[in-house]
Amino acid sequence: MRESQLMANDAAFFYLARSGRMTDWPMWWVFDSGDGPAPTGEQVTEYFGARAAALEPLRRRIVEAPGGLTHPFWAIDDSSIESHVVTHPDGLDWAACQDRMAKVLTEPLDARVCAWRLHVFPGVRGIGTLSGAGTVVMMHTSHALLAGPAMTSLGEALFAADPAPVRIEGQPSAARHPRLWPAVVADAIRIPWRTVRFLAGARALSRRTVPEGEADWSVISARTRTVLNQRIGPDRALRTVPLDLASVRTPGVTVTAIGLTAISLALQRYFDEHTLPCPEDLSAFVTIAIPGEQVLGVNRIGADVVDLHPGETDIAARARAVDETLRARRGSASSPRELARLQLIDGLPSRTYRTKFGTLPPADPPPLPPAHTILTSIRCDSDTALSLLDSRFRFAGMLPPVYPDIALAHSFVGAGDVFAVSVACDPAIVTDPDVYCDLLRKAFAELAALA
Fold it and tell me: In this protein, which residues make up the domain named O-acyltransferase WSD1 C-terminal (predicted)?
């Protein structure tokens, strides 16, 4: 009966999207045509249509249960692959292409109708590191359907010469006709019992003491409010900066920590240029993979706050301090207490989830900010060469959703020998994203000089 039902964690992303938050997940791949002509939009659309078998796990849409008394289900989507492909004008320059990609981020999907789209930008001019015209393919997907760990498999399904079906760990099956009413009746009857069980479990969890010597991962303190911590509007700006992966490797420090240090330097200098105070508790909300946890569905990710140490003036020492904080906090998302909390809230009635996540809290009074920016980072290690109609794969990018009260988000994607740094922001708050990206480039160059 429930083989096609969303786990509570994945359903929460659907509810968040219904509340007006933009929770969709965008990712993109960039291809280089070199001396040859770039493929046309029609050719790329036909190419994807021929890969229907490899993309079969994506062919689904959400069906809600009557009254919202249980979590939604996945139903089979019989629409053609070609109907999910959107082709943009040929010959855009890289700046115009990124503007159109940013526009996609402002147009959330309704997963009940369409859970994903492929946006094709053919013949893009002026992309750094490319020798010829570029082709950019952007996957825009509901976060209830996909999360970061599936990106490598999805890239292979889309662009490998001999594609296998995309693998999405934790994905339930899709039903032709989900059996909604039996699940609704069963869960409606269980609402009182599930509520009592949750309250009892919450009391027990609050009484559980943290063993001596073990970090208390549940503690996330409010941070100093900055210009970045205000309710964002509907518009987005997007920038991607491809860097040489070798240039961000420093012995003894993780690549993610080097990137966070660059963000620390860039943010501090951005505040200085705008005569704004840089908070001493400058921090980033960083996603953390949680592999193997069935209770999380496809979204096997958590997050924690990493201090960026702006008070450390020595750049090398700052990088070490950020790295130390990052290593310490990486255990938070999979700590015994956090996993117990996830198991506990998974048992909440669906109506409780809808109430909590399906309404965006008002901006006044402003909520206490947990961090000043957001980062998600992934390494796409593929044993298979990727290409698109004889165009060579060069780099990939993605972005996390921009939080309602955090106006600036970053991502790092390592693929091949390129480390792509992407930035999304509300341009009404971060009014000069190109200036900020220049500060990021300079910060990475300074850190590379220390290696």
Answer: 299-447
Say how far apart CA 349 and CA 11 lie, in whole Å.
12
What is the separation of C-alpha 28 from the centre of its chain, rounded to a whole number of angstroms? Answer: 12
Report whether 374 contacts 308 (CB < 8 A): no
In-domain check, residue 195: no
Instruction: Give the mean pLDDT of 358-384.
Output: 87
Do 198 and 348 form a contact (C-beta atoms < 8 A)?
Answer: yes
Q: Map residue 341 onto helix, strand or coil.
A: helix
* Number of domains composing the chain: 2
Task: Tell me, yes or no, whether 281 lies in a domain.
Answer: yes
> Which residue is listed with tokens 């957001």?
374
Q: Find residue 397's DSSP bridge partners.
A: 28
Residue 328: the pLDDT is 86
Q: In whole numbers, what is the pLDDT of the chain averaged over residues?
A: 90
Q: Which residues are CB-neighbours of 69 under 8 A, at least 6 positions away?
A: 184, 187, 188, 191, 349, 350, 351
135 band by pLDDT with thresholds 50, 70 and 90 = very high
Say if CB 441 and CB 421 are below 8 A apart: no
Query: What is the enclosing helix (H) or strand (E) of 64?
Result: none
Q: Same domain, yes or no, for 295 and 346?
A: yes
pTM recorded for the entire structure: 0.93
Amino acid residing at 436: Y
Rounded Cα–Cα distance for residues 1 and 431 (Å): 51
DSSP-derived secondary structure letter, 280? T
Q: Are 52 and 77 in contact, with CB atoms under 8 Å apart? A: no
In sequence order, the β-bridge partners of residue 388 are 391
pLDDT digits (tens, 9 = 90+) for 230-248: 999 999 999 999 999 888 8
Answer with the one of 181, 210, 245 that is the final residue of a domain: 181
Domain boundary among 150, 165, 181: 181
Strands lying side by side in the sheet with 85-87: 85-87, 116-124, 134-141, 25-32, 391-398, 387-388
Rounded CA separation 239/184 (Å): 44
**Cα 142 to Cα 393: distance, rounded to the nearest angstrom:** 25
- 377 in Cβ contact with 343 (< 8 Å): no
CATH classification at residue 400:
3.30.559.10
In terms of residue numbers, what domain contains 170? Answer: 8-181
Tell me if 187 is assigned to some domain. no
For residue 369, CA distances in Å to 285, 397, 399 come to 10, 27, 20
Q: Are residues 170 and 260 in the same domain?
A: no
